[in-house]
Queue: 4 jobs
Job 1
Amino acid sequence: MEQEPEWIESPGADGRLALSAKGAWTINAVSDLDRRIKGTRLNGAAQVELDVSGITRLDTAGAWLLYRAQRDFAGGGADATLVGLDARFAPLLELVEQADKAHPEIERDRGNPVTVLLERIGRAVCEAVAEGVSLLNFLGLTIITMLRVVVRPRRMRIVSLVNQIEQTGLNALGIVGLLLFLIGVVLAFQSAEQLRKFAAEILTADGLAILVLREIGVLIAAILIAGRSGSAFTAEIGMMKVNEEIDALRTTGIDPIEVLVLPRINALLITLPLLTFFANFAALAGGTLMAVAALDVTFPQFIRQLADAMTLKNFLVGMVKAPVFAFLIGLVGCYEGLQVGGSAESIGRLTTKSVVESIVLVILADATFSIVFAYLEI
């Protein structure tokens, strides 16, 4: 039967500490032995004598514990020696010592937490600036390519454009219509609950029309397209980049911007205004049904009040934003796709990044429009 491993501490005289190791020092006993070794204190001893003659079995884990104990005692200012080492185990201890000296433990400089935080913020700012400059360069390249195609209309990829219109517009009608219908229901219900306190429930139609036409319709439609179509642009172009198809296009003299980027951006420029119009209709329909069901008003009364609030100015304010949002979504989606490296992990990371960047830019653009329209009193 295998002898249980032991670590016996025997305080000696004249500043000496006597230790003995016995039994099977194998990986199965590492946890218990490690705890007992770390609990050993020098207590001012200048010499440590470690008797290892009682060790019956020794593997790499046990040899590491012996070597580390001797090293730590020596580091504590004591003269540590091994006594009675079996000749069978000497080569293993030498290998452990050589491995430790060849690959010493690296002390990581954690630094001051405030300094580390400032460094991370600074690095993030620098990366954001570099990303913005690169995206601005891509914007210029895209506009130049677009103007070149306008001068030579025969270079326009009609088949690709129609296919992208189907993918980004027609196939998105269901999710856009459903979500905006439900948002219209929520807006009408919440507005009615607040206006009922002032006996002005009929004004729910005015708030619904202004919110949907000026802000909610185009903004929610753009966010949905950013998550649906913008991510698809990045994934599709990124997969082509991984498969070296884009390099093949460049080798044959075909401009990837003209073939891959322009059809997608132009498709969004066409479909997002149409989706915005459809989104406005769906949201107003949902709000109307909710208001008629929840309020003490008839359908003709609510429609008449809604029609009075649906001015051409409110409608155009929302529609003007749609092409700008579409251009931003298409630009970011295609740009991030072209930044994909040579791995599938890169596709996933940049697809997520493109969606986040698109939504952030859309909201920033919407805020800019709001400030400009307020300044112009529109």
Note: The chain has a mean pLDDT of 86.
Job 2
Amino acid sequence: MLNLGEKQTLKVSKEEKFGIYLVPDNSANPDERIMLPIKQKPEGIKIGDSLEVFIYRDSADRLIATTNEPLITLGKVARLRVVSTSDIGAFLDWGLEKDLFLPFREQTRPVKVDDQINVALYIDKSDRLCATMKIYHYLATNSPYLPNANVTGEIYEISKNFGAFVAVDNKYSALIPPNEIYTNLKVGDTITARITAIKPDGKIDLALRPKAYIKIGDDAERIITIISTKYDGTLPFTDKTATPTQIRETFNMSKNEFKRALGNLLKTNKITITPTTITQTNPHSPPNAD
């Protein structure tokens, strides 16, 4: 059979002035054939020869074969360039004469001309090839990475319940859980993160911040800097009186990270803590002074 959106090896069955007809090997259906335009006919090819082609629809919505190499095939993810936009969607360069349609409903953010975006290729209800930015189910789960590796990827969707979905290397499925999000992330952002876990199904969990023992010093310095510059040396709350939201909004860290950094500051005698306040012991010294 002829497989829309895929590369296939077909056999030359007939030649006309405008092109050559190709059929699947051992096809029992005499009407199951597809045309390759004459301008793409390889030199020297003859009836009975085999030829690898890609099958898609032309501007008249007819099945057609091409020897041109598509930048994406059915069910795969690729990074494509936006060449035009309209009220109903956008059109992408995928290496073929007819641009690939990205419906508006399949966009996870507004796109503009020359944007490079990750999309998957699917067949819509009208049996046409289209692109989607909703690539969760199309990403691979067999990454070569191990826990604690640093990876780079693009955020393609954000959920209040689940977190930020990331395409690592524009190929592998990953997630930044909500409790690991401390900055304003948006769809289209490229991030570098650390792998915290690899699930049994191969999906990856990510953290934007380094491991706790690595960043305690940085967190401690941030706390001292903020106490010194924004609170004139005395913070009007402690880890016991502040809410997690208050700590996150003030210091861009979780309550546990805040407590660990306070322990470091106490150990180095940089702060004193009362039931309601945290005070810098030497407010006139530089924030990173011992």
Note: The mean pLDDT is 89.
Job 3
Amino acid sequence: MEPITERKIVLILRETRLAELIRRFNTRQQAQFYVEHLGADFSDYLAEHERYLQATEDVESVLRHFGRLQRVDRAFLANFIFGPDDLVVVLGQDGLVANTMKYLDGQRIVGVNPDPRRWDGVLLPFVATDLLRIIPEALADRRQVKSVTMAKATLNTGITLYAVNDLFIGPQSHVSARYELSIGDRQERQSSSGIIVSTGLGSTGWLKSIYAGWVAMAAAFGLGGDEPKPDGAFPWDAQRLHYYVREPFPSRTSAASLVIGRIEQSETIGIVSEMPEHGVIFSDGIEADFLEFNSGTRAIIGIAERSGQLIV
């Protein structure tokens, strides 16, 4: 059957846990032996894999009816060139939607949950059977779109990195990060385990865990009382970011007064690395896709000029 539009639909997929194991151990039998030898349940890997393959087949059969379809594995996202009119369909977990969104520039995303019994899918409002109704509406721009504010790190080397959830600036391993932090007309040298800069979407993830730890420590010291406790959450489309310095260490050469705050729409923060090696910046928890952030490198962090566009 001929597609009803010339617009390209890009389907983003990822390997299942079983596929990753087979790639590591060469065969399914060897992967099964490894997992069961450790006392784990291999049937869960099989069930997840088979359900994902079935969902992929179901989604592809629908998408081919509406437009030219191109499959892209998550591993190739960083080098894939999206067309300005592409409609992007993501089949996977929430993290795959976030990882895809940071490589887009205005293209809209349809998030599809391959297994609602397994994945909560905050960013995956649809299942495969919804697509017959959703895709023609999305192609005709008749679906509501939710804007997602993104963060951006720009280095003095000319390299940039976008984030949908959060940026991490700090050490690659369990050593102290050393840097100079500038916010407005204030600046100080710090030693910490790194800085988290969170978007509204990411505020229910890593940032929330930081606030939860802070609240628990305050309670342990008898602080805080009965008033409502902050959890750090704020709207996905809020035109601000939140930063938090993890485990700041005050010493003769490092201070700890600039440890938490907002970055408003017209503001940025500057960070100059003083780490001779192992300094990194990565986004959305993808540690393998990082920028080197070693001595002399300066990063400017602020709200990105573009935002994610999630169809709901």
Note: The longest strand covers residues 298-311.
Job 4
Amino acid sequence: MTDHAVSTTEATGRGKTAVASQIAVLASLAALGTLATNIFLPSLPNMAAALNVSSAAVTSAITVFLAVFALGQLVVGPISDRYGRRWPVLAGFAVFLAGSIWCASTSNLTGLLIGRVIQAAGACSTSVLSRAIARDLFSGAALARAMALIMIAMAAAPGFSPLLGGAFDHVWGWRSEFVFVSLFAAAAAIAYGAILGETHHSVRIPLDPFSIGRSYGDLLRDRRFVVPAAIVSLIMSGLFSLFSAAPRVLIEAMQFSPIQLGLFFAGTVLIVFAAGMLATRLAPRLGLDRSIQLGLAGRKSAGELS
């Protein structure tokens, strides 16, 4: 092999490593919000006992987080288009870190809810900008692969983080879960600064509230956006309803341990992943309509059995 061929191979290898590192950082940004919510699900009964409230009251920590998380993204996107990605992402990490430390040290429900609001205000920045940064860095097939891997990370975090949280709760108690997400955020922030940094080098869009409002209004009137968004919203609503109710039912009523609850969520995600892989194989053979009908029939049968 010639020196030129060797250098070309090494350059290709370095390029693939750099891309893999970039996607890994983007995946950590995208997964931060779901990690922060689902990691403490096995600990909800223990948290309720420590804070002297009911388990139902503690689940409000999920509700307030999701509300701030959703609304914050509407603000972060336009800010990043005007001022770039770097400082909104780093500010998001800093705010999230502060909120996590607040949650870890709180002694009452009010303090927990305040900490969760602060957490969500930071996590919404990293989550929404992970996709924007992916579009800054990649295009075409490379962008599709990057977005697919980011979505896998976002899907895996809700399933496997309760198992991790159950282990932390068993060994060190529920406050250690917030310490862990603090360390995770700090490591992700360092990796972001070292590997990615500023990626928005195109023309900056002026921060005009009226123009932004009109754009959101146009989206809400566009069926191509509203219908898929409504479907995804209903699916996510059902998913988080399950996440909120499962700890009380499985731990308090059925005497699951926190680790057993984590295994339940992890097993559920594995089944979902397997079903998704099966669907991609069945759709070309059976057609999209028949594949969807088969999935709905299976869901109906499972509901009748339960």
Note: The first helix runs from residue 3 to 38.
